[in-house]
Specification:
Number of helices: 4
Mean pLDDT: 79
Helix content: 25-40%
Largest sheet: 4 strands, antiparallel
Distance between the termini: 31 Å
Amino acid sequence: MKILKGKPCLKWTHIKISSKQLLRLIQSILGLIVEKYQNKYRIKSHRMPNWDYSGNGVYFLTIVTQNRVCNLGNIENNKIVLSEFGKIVENELLKSFKIRDELFLDEYIIMPNHIHAIVVLFVETHGRASLRTPEQKFFRKPKSISSFFAGFKSAINSKIDAHIDFQELDIPKYNKNNHFFQSNYYDHIVRNNNEYNRIKNYIIENPQNWGDDKFNSGNANE
């Protein structure tokens, strides 16, 4: 299965929106973010104060394999060539967005030991982005980035375990004590069009920059 550059997973579904509609949705959400937070928070942190990460937004997400093991594929001629594990991961990634009406996958790339993706979360909230007050305790909402990752990582453990059994591979299996992916993930709210375009280009160019990638254990500059 080839990785499609510049193509959202909407092409894989029959119930979601077109690429142009997704781009318009992204532009609308970014416009609301700029309007709501302009000149309010000039901070270096990638997390917005009081932002509800189960609320509508455009997110740059990164998830890394356990111990940064490069078992998703190899970079050859500046392109990713997926391993069998990598193909399983890509299939489950696309399937995850097919079954979740509130999530849309924009640009993404599967690298040897991590995944980068721009994801749109859109839940009907009367046109307003959700905020959580500081005193509210965290809990995982069913339609949120955290619930998506929980389901995705659980599915990956199960699918790869089934592959290990089927192929009779002499390697440890994955479970709650030995996850395929790290328990944490990186999330960043995309705040404006310039940032969106910069991140999109970064994802597209990631394979050709693998030698300098911070997740590349062979990078002497890490």
